Amino acid sequence: MSEWQLSETFRSTSGDVRWGHLGQPGRSPVVLLHGTPFSSYVWRAVARALARDYQVFVWDMPGYGASEKFAGQDVSLAAQGRIFTELLTHWGMEEPLVVAHDFGGAVSLRAHLLHGVRYRALALVDPVALAPWGSPFFRLVGSHSEVFEELPPALHRALVREYVSSASSPGLHPAVLDRLVQPWLGDPGQAAFYRQIAQADQLHTDEVQDQYGKIDLPTLVCWGQDDTWIPVAKGPELAARIPGARLETIAGAGHLVQEDAPAEFTAALVAFLQQVS
Fold first, then answer.
1. For residues 218 and 172, what is the distance between their CA atoms, to the nearest angstrom?
2. What rounded mean pLDDT belongs to the chain?
3. Which residues 6+ apart lie within 8 Å of 176 measured at CB?
4. pLDDT-based confidence at 277, cuts 50/70/90?
5. 22, 99, 103, 190 from 118: Cα distances, Å
6. How far apart are CA 10 and CA 90, in angstroms?
7. Is the Cβ–Cβ distance between 104 and 33 less than 8 Å?
8. Which of 54, 241, 253, 259 sits CB 3.0–4.6 Å from 224 for a disulfide?
9. What's the CA gap between 31 and 162, in Å, rounded?
10. C-alpha to C-alpha distance for 152 and 205, rounded to whole angstroms
11. 33 and 250 in contact (C-beta within 8 Å)?
12. What is the rounded distance in angstroms from the CA atom of residue 66 to the CA atom of residue 167?
């Protein structure tokens, strides 16, 4: 697992972005977007499977994973949508296949609907897309982020571990949990963890929610059946708003579908991508 490294750097308007790619150049590009509080690491198994037939691009959003973190950094959904647009321009990529998880879903939707970015197809995986969103814990931390930033390191570590663990239905392997928690520890990780929660404003999805009916591209909505972060009932609601969208639910998976049911999820994703590419 330590071999998952992002070797490239893009200097965005919100800090250095670490990114990487797998698969042979010239093949159809697939871009994978992670959610919060995660990183591209959650895509490692799926990315390697897709790299057999596609060129796969992965990145850590500013303020996440291996990308830059600093005081005063704008890591909002609005900023991430702009940065994703910048990154696609940097890659010289037109109409990629896009797969987006959690708040990466909101990032991809904002880039498409507000910044005019075209995709060949879009797969939304347990996305942050419909109001209301944000658990009571998430809202509590967002309202008191400066207080939580001052937690002793041991208490902060325990809080983050418990929070990340709750995204999985069957439970995460201890080594995987350690890897997902590690970017949020120490300096500047602890402050960055609370910063990204404090900047998670539902207004950024309210701004685009009424435009989902304008989406005119093949779309897959995929949901973990046991998701306790965003209820599975949001899946058919979102699919109904996007013309022609297909809905897939993954049994035995929570919010982190990639970790909970990688084989079943990858099979559904590959079937979708083969139909549209």
1. 32
2. 96
3. 1, 259
4. confident
5. 22, 13, 19, 35
6. 8
7. yes
8. 253
9. 29
10. 33
11. no
12. 21
The residues, ordered by sequence, that sit 6+ positions from 64 with a Cβ below 8 Å of its Cβ are 34, 36, 37, 38, 39, 75, 183, 192, 196
What was the pLDDT predicted at 2? 53
Give the per-residue SS3 of the chain. Answer: CCCCCCCEEEEEECEEEEEEEECCCCCCEEEEECCCCCCHHHHHHHHHHHCCCCEEEEEECCCCCCCCCCCCCCCCHHHHHHHHHHHHHHHCCCCCEEEEECHHHHHHHHHHHHHCCCCCEEEEECCCCCCCCCCHHHHHHHHCHHHHCCCCHHHHHHHHHHHHHCCCCCCCCHHHHHHHHHHHCHHHHHHHHHHHHHCCCCHHHHHHHCCHHHCCCCEEEEEECCCCCCCCCHHHHHHHHCCCCEEEEECCCCCCHHHHCHHHHHHHHHHHHHHHC
Q: Distance of CA 191 to CAs 68, 138, 146, 253, Å?
A: 13, 15, 9, 30
Rg (CA), the chain: 17
Q: Whole-angstrom Cα distance, residue 272 to residue 160?
A: 34
Quote the pTM value. Answer: 0.97
Q: 87-100 pLDDT, tens per residue?
A: 999 999 999 999 99
User: Over the stretch 165-186, which tens digit does the pLDDT of each residue have?
Assistant: 999 999 999 999 999 999 999 9
CA 118 to chain centre: 18
CB 160 within 8 A of CB 180: no
